[in-house]
Amino acid sequence: MRIGILTYHCVPNYGAQLQALSTVCYLKKAGYVPIMLNWYPKDLQDMYEKRVGQEQIKAHDDFTKTYLPVTETCRNEKDLIDAIKKNKIDRIVVGSDALFKYTPLIKRFSLDRAHYKIKRKHVVSCEKLEGNPFFGEFLKSLSSDIKAAAFSVSSQNCPFNTMLPTEKKKMKRALENYSYISVRDSWTQKMVENVLGKDTIRISPDPVFSFNQNCEDIIPSKDQILKKYNLPTNYVLLSFGKHYTNKKYVEDIINELKQKGLTSVWLPMPEDAFTVSAVDVLISTPLNPMDWYSLIKYSCGYIGERMHPIVVSLHNSIPFYCFDEYGIKTFTGRGLKREYNKETSKTYLIVKRAGLLENLFSYKENTDFPHVSIVVNGILNFDKTKCSEFARNVQDDYQQCMKDVLKKILSLIPQHYSLTLFISA
Predict the structure, then answer these.
(1) Which 3 state secondary structure label does DSSP give 235?
(2) Handedness of CA 54, 55, 56, 57 (dihedral sign)
(3) pLDDT, tens digit, for every residue of 347-358?
(4) What does the pLDDT look like over 39-50, one tens digit per residue?
């Protein structure tokens, strides 16, 4: 059985590529032939090439060539349909990641107060309905025998309440082509249920929550990583972008870590736009996603931004202190005041499920940064027992959800696959 996977598999983003690889390895272990549908619209590629350096992009391209069995490049839905037919794809899994990210029509315009005129915002193709395969409209052009499931998809805090009735109708018509839909967070759950008029959409884990189990044979060892990057065993990673924080604050955290006898290591983002020279070890780009994962997995702690570093930390019971940059502010009352809605942040929702909100600070909710002692003590006093229990529960949930996905799109599940599921669950 040849199963096509449609997701963000080749963008220069560590978490995006790791979730794709996790699904590939899971399906291989289950006895299927996974094939990455190499959908990469030109405008999305152009956007990343403006943000990320060529050496780092090459590191992600090399990762794709090494680990992911891809089709020819698909720039549009016609290319995608042709690739599915050419590669004799039998079933399709769409996800995980922020595939249901959508910019409503009303949000594509803003008021230029300086010139008293309306400005149209640039929206890439993957934030629209037309020509965006993630919402499932293209499935109508395939054989009725090819069933598809959307798994652990996120809307990336889409303000779906601002969608027009015509938009919801189009989205509903597209989503109804799926045989199964699960989402990664409760905000996306509300969106999909609102669009479909159902209250039965399930929340399922990001595939990176099962990376150790799915990809155990290809993860570098701790000794390999420590030797490659010349690291001690007691290192703590820091990873920040330039938009919210400042070097002085990060340097204060580094000094606090030193006082506690911990080595500070800078973990770069793909954009590599912000670094602090005061760290003990500066890891720079290019950095491949497998090493990025392993550096977190073998660390004593992670302090920084983004969602997938927190997922990797939770999965491996690594202490963390998260600086959350996600979520949106919405108008409340009579529309005169804007308040931050924490429930729109994908990172907040994951940390909340883990019961570890004391280790999260939201940029958009607060103005004063937490004292550096609070951040470092959050690492030193981290509740590993609670985290490990959460990780085990999420792994069991992942296995059950994948079982449900395949039941919906396959007519028969091999016996060895069923046994694997029951042992894990």
Answers:
(1) strand
(2) positive
(3) 999 999 999 999
(4) 999 999 999 999
